Amino acid sequence: MRRLHLGLVVVAVATLTACGLRNGGGVERQGPAGDSVARVVTEKDFDHRNFPTPLQVDNRWWPLQPGTEFVYQGTAIEDDQRIRRRVEVTVSDLIKVVDGVPAVVIWERDYNNDELVETELAFFAQDDDGNVWNLGEYPEEFVDGVFEGAPNTWLSGIEDARAG
């Protein structure tokens, strides 16, 4: 299993730019001076017919090759206290069809000061234009090591939830 260690800042940048430029996501168009300009992709651009190969997620900002593990480490402020944060993401070789799209299943574990606070299954797919879409999440929250619930579960196409 490949393991990549990156900072939490990279998580934010990768998440915010996953729909960036072609061959890294997003769609390019020509600007007035003939230069490439990225077009912002929104949920209105989602088309379940635009996802040909479910296990091919090779976007340069969010590559999801089965067997890869990403580990993001850093600190955060919680209740005016600095805490250690670690997020471990494992890309599985499992596929779940969500809203008509075969999606790669990832398993994410979130830790605060080495205590597990959330686990999550999330579902991602890459469209023909290289955009990586989040099709849903099933997070489980823990307090003092005890399961508290899964209040923020959503799947694209169910109860007005949309891929993004």
Topology, element by element:
Blueprint: E1 3-7, H1 8-17, E2 27-30, E3 36-39, E4 69-78, E5 81-98, E6 101-112, E7 115-126, E8 132-143, E9 146-149, E10 154-155
Parallel strand pairs: 1-4
Antiparallel strand pairs: 2-3, 4-5, 5-6, 6-7, 7-8, 8-9, 8-10
What characterizes the major β-sheet? 8 strands, mixed
What is the rounded Rg? Answer: 17 Å
- The best one-word shape is globular
- What percent strand? over 45%
- Poorly predicted runs: 2-31
What's the β-strand tally?
Answer: 10
In terms of quaternary structure, the protein is single chain
Number of helices: 1
State the secondary-structure class. mainly beta
End-to-end separation: 28 Å
Helix content: under 10%
Please give a structural write-up:
With 164 residues, the protein is mostly beta strands. The protein has 1 helix and 10 strands; from the N terminus they run βαβββββββββ. Strands 1, 4, 5, 6, 7, 8, 9 and 10 form an 8-stranded mixed β-sheet that branches. A two-stranded antiparallel ribbon has the order 2-3.
Q: How would you briefly describe this protein structure?
A:
The protein is mainly beta. It contains one helix and ten strands.
Question: Could you list some keywords that capture this structure?
Answer:
single chain; 164 residues; eight-stranded mixed sheet; 10 strands; two-stranded antiparallel sheet; mainly beta; globular
